[in-house]
Amino acid sequence: MNTGGAWMPTDLPVVVSGIRATGRLHLGNYIGAMRNFPSLQDKYKCYFFVADYHTLTTLTNPDDLRENLPEIVMDYLATGLDPMRSTIFAQSSIPQIPELSLLGIIAKSRVCDNLKLSV
After folding, report:
1. What is the pLDDT of residues 4-56, one digit of tens each?
2. What's the CA gap between 87 and 31, in Å, rounded?
3. What pTM did the predictor assign?
């Protein structure tokens, strides 16, 4: 159940899955993942997202990305995802994602520096 952004504890296991916004979805997306998504809503707390940050590595035109994002959300809904039973979001709508990535880069850099000093 979507709680309007409020976190609520649940006894259900969690599923998180995302699809890159590189273009129109195809049969491979459907067979490989999306056809199973609706049935997961009954057994799991589901978070489905459009991985638009991941798309930046291959899709260089920002207009294409803006166009693809709502198309993928519509495809999610067309496969039977219910926004009242699953959370559907764009990766870029969560500011903590790039913040955590930056922290990971800094931490890795410091670990590597410490390893060089200890050798």
Report:
1. 555 555 688 999 998 887 777 888 888 888 899 999 998 999 999 988 877 77
2. 21
3. 0.72
Residue 12: how many other CB atoms lie within 10 Å: 11
Q: Please state, as a whole number, how many other Cβ atoms lie within 10 Å of the Cβ of residue 79.
A: 17
Instruction: Compute the Cα dihedral for 27, 16, 23, 79 and give only its sign.
Output: positive
| Domains, the chain, ordered by start | 14-94 (3.40.50.620)
pLDDT at residue 111 tops 70:
yes
Query: Which residues are CB-contacts of 52 (< 8 A; sequence separation ≥ 6)?
Result: 20, 21, 65, 69, 90, 91, 92
User: Do the beta carbons of residue 92 and residue 54 sit within 8 Å?
Assistant: no
Specify whether the CB–CB gap between 91 and 52 falls below 8 A.
yes
